[in-house]
Amino acid sequence: MKIVSFHNESWEHDYLKEHLPGEDIVFFDGTLQDNADARDDQADVLSVFIKSHVGKDELDRFPNVKLITTRSTGFDHIDLAEAAARGITVCNVPTYGENTVAEHVFALLLALSRRVYESYDRILKEGTFSPEGLRGFDLKGKTMGVIGTGHIGMHAIRIAKGFEMNVVAFDIHRNNELAESLGYRYLEFDEVLGTSDVISLHAPDNEHTHHMINSGNMDKIKRGAYLINTARGGLIETKALVTALEQGLLAGAGLDVLEEENYTEDDLALLTQEQPNPESLVAVLANQYLIDHPRVIVTPHNAFNTQEALERILATTADNIKAFSTGTAQNVVAPR
To answer: Which residues are catalytic?
Structure first.
């Protein structure tokens, strides 16, 4: 099979070549959009990461592709309906980051609770070791609300219990046996919002979950709570988050993902559009507010980014391609 892979580092090239011996692999640095002139009517497989949008226009450039394998758990960057219409199988990497992303949740939370960034910034800019105005809070005894108890959410629960936090959770599919063994409780969504000192989101962004935190329910969150999002930016209505911070409903937020984060990285692309989307423009401005906010920690969609996780991603990607080539496709998200 001919494989076209986008957004790879040089060491990843070697890894895939070693684990897919005999396959014809072509590598492009950057995304599908960065390589707008790339096209290949002989390619059988597209390997992409989250910043490569795969829709009709992109698939027209690779008309004979039979498999799209994304090196991520989320797959909202792929037009599944378009892939299905063309008979293309889509696979993902479902469990590579269960501990990796969950650990980043607590990196963000500890940075907020112990005012790590502000402390470092004071030393760096003022050269003073004074702790005045930098008082934090303990995690022990606080209640953490976990929205989504899949692989990552469940690992976040385990870490929270290690900090001796109380844990409540919401999921449309409840695992009561695991809840009993780990010592957490399932509640209804609004109950989690109203009970939790810290809310951590672990859900995909789809028609059911988009803006699950919004202007209609933000005031149901316990006043002074912290919101952590390492899942997808679209889970939070950005304008509602800005308002909640301005009004003091939320004490702070830790965000590894933002709405319209692709434009945050390249706002010129949005500004130079012939008819820019007003909602996207507002989101980009709101994102800058969040980045500048003293009680918000923003990281650049980096929760997945450890050496061990990347190796797991590539191993599963290679296995996905091998399985597909033998007619036993695995980790299929579409068509089901």
So the answer is: 232, 261, 301
